[in-house]
Write a structure and sequence with these properties.
Elements: E1 3-8, H1 15-25, E2 29-33, H2 35-38, H3 41-49, E3 56-60, H4 62-66, H5 70-73, E4 78-83, H6 86-92, E5 101-105, E6 115-118, E7 121-123, H7 125-137, E8 142-144, E9 153-154, H8 155-169
Parallel strand pairs: 1-4, 1-5, 2-3, 2-4, 5-8
Antiparallel strand pairs: 6-7, 8-9
Helix pairs in contact: 7-8
Length: about 170
Amino acid sequence: MERIIFRVDDRFIHGQVIEGWINHFLIKNIILINDSIADDVKKTFIYKSTMPRNTKLDVMSINAFLQLDILNEYKKGYLLIIVGSIHDLKLISSNIPKENSYINIGCLATTSRDITVTDNCFINKEELECLVNISNKYSKDIYAHKLPWEKPINLKDIHSNQTNIEKMQG
């Protein structure tokens, strides 16, 4: 396995994911993890129909993913794993391999949140704490950026800045 990319994106699969991540890294295997999409045949079909040729999309529930041995199931190339929320990333975090994995926060813009990370990534304090906890627990830095060639923002830096702001205000 070259690398497993875990991406949090509330739009799941869209142009930036296809052109920016899938085509850039020539990703042949993708897992979309979402309970409601996994239970909906029409939504699953729509997502699968957007895939570039020779790219396989597996849609599964959180529980199905947690039963999966990803290192043995997906052995070659890059693997992209997409969840729609930081909460779901936390739920699947026990399946993040220590080696060759990268955690990316992409688009999180569908609900109001008070911390601006990028122009299309907004989080709240609890989500930031959750990301820092995942980062510390799995010794993985977590980065926010839309596209792989953009400069990534380390979420620990955002956390440090938030902590300093709170100290100045308090």
